[in-house]
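Hi L., both proteins are below.
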Amino acid sequence: MKSAPSDSAKTTPAATRLKAFAAPQARPLPVIVLADVSGSMSENGKIDALNVALKEMILSFGKESGLRAEIQVGLITFGGREAHEHLPLVAAKVIGGVEAFKANGGTPMGSAFALARKLLEDKEQIPSRAYRPVLILVSDGAPTDAWEAPLADLKASERGQKATRFAMAIGADADLDMLAQFPNDREAPVFKTHEARDIGRFFRAVTMSVVSRSTSAAPDQPVTLDMEDGLTDDLDLDTL
């Protein structure tokens, strides 16, 4: 003789009961890089250092498999007359490789800000369940297009305010006053470097911080960067 169903089985829908046994799905953690590929980046090995640093960062992200967060990467490049979406936002683990950037033309940074805002506001690419995005701006010069309004729009947008924004200035010609308007972390103002090899150091610090966040119990907490001298060239993700 069959026993009578329990009170909970009588009142809990079958779909809800099945959901309780489903594996939790990792939430997206978007990382969007705004990379200067203008003509001046061809000097002193800067574009080559940027290409290597980005490749290492994406490779490191792709090895992560956080239960709570899936790191996704998008690349926006600005060089020539306008910015381009070099790599659509996609899970780092499925990125097979990234085409090396070539330095050319002006510095249409305003165009890059507009593209970044458009991407942030696209709820098909960044759903509401995503964690707080990370925006990374890298430049060695000054904008050659209208940038004030696009940057203001990006910073004023709901998702732009929630995103963590970092900026790196490369070389003596970088417009520090302008770039200082991009970051929103008091503990992480514009990072300055005069050597191309420091581009990789900056991206390794970003990588370690994002990976640490993706594997933490609270992936939505703001990211902090550790650019202390103790940071070595050998990234060891197992120590995080």
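That was the first. Here is the second:
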Amino acid sequence: MLAATVRVTRDLDVAEESVQDAYVSALSAWERDGVPDRPGAWLTTAARNKALNALARRQTLRAKLPLLVLPEELTVPEAIPDDRLRLVFTCCHPALSAEARIGLTLRLVCGVSTADVASAFLVPEATMAARITRAKKKIAAARIPYRVPESDELPARLDSVLTVVHLLATTGHTAPSGDALVRIDLAERALDLARLLHALLPEEAEVAGLVALLLVHRAREGTRTDEAGRLVPLADQDRSAWDRNLIAEADQLVVRALLAGPPGRFTLQAAIAALHAQAPSYAETDWPQIRTLYDALLRVWRTPVVALNRAVAVAMVDGPAAGLAAVEVLEASGELAGYHYLPAAKADFLRRLGRFAEAADAYAAALALTDNAAEQDFLRDRLG
């Protein structure tokens, strides 16, 4: 709805206010007349009308300042007529900082709360709110066009676009806060955007890799919690319930992406996810191959989070003591301070080594760092 309204207004603030006003109008109109057959269309139309009225008033006040239509709209290619994708490319403009691009996209396109976006960046909510406000003002001041860029403009934006879609998927895969482990709406939105990108750029291996990665996540989604919403670890998930059609589709994309040349970070992550999906059981997973893929991933995308994930593979190949050593190196660096998966992984290695008191301390540290209720319950169970 927001993306469709932005297409009319070319102004993010006006679009946001109009969408909010449309919801307020719905409260009284639907109570009086009943819920319409197509509530989504009703809200979108109401938001568009309110936006047009707001812009008309603004035009009058500003002596007919032409904010309604930008010249670029007349030459926009319509190969991918999707408002959400246009808004993603607008938010990922190179004129914005990397953090502003991602924060703005998560907030506006993906509907992630400012608090959760702030949590992802480990900054206060007020700081993230200020960054998003500055980014919106910069888009308005610079008259950044609302469109999918031309082919020669794509390289400067594609990596950011892939990053925000991946981060959206990650946020949906495990919600930073709330009662549910998974936010299906965000996960589905990320997969939709990834598929749209793939339709736009079918020869881009990294786009195919991202689609494959999200397909595997989607295939396993229903088994990550039990009927009560409790977290089920990968080792205990019912693999017979995984969606084999999605996994087969992902496999084809991964193979094509790997054959296209040196793999990038999304292709390598997809290859790792595919290996997990193909394994008949957790114990029978090809852990040596997964560790090799993490080694390759670290060469193209050296981040402490990748190093932490590699430590899990190391522990499965060489034992928990080796995994613990790898985690302690990361812990000493301080790069993942505040990231609850680090103490959680450390706790698991310590538990497997029989160092239960130290494991309990690490589980408690992880528990203190997560705001997701399903993860909190899982960690409390580990604490006993």
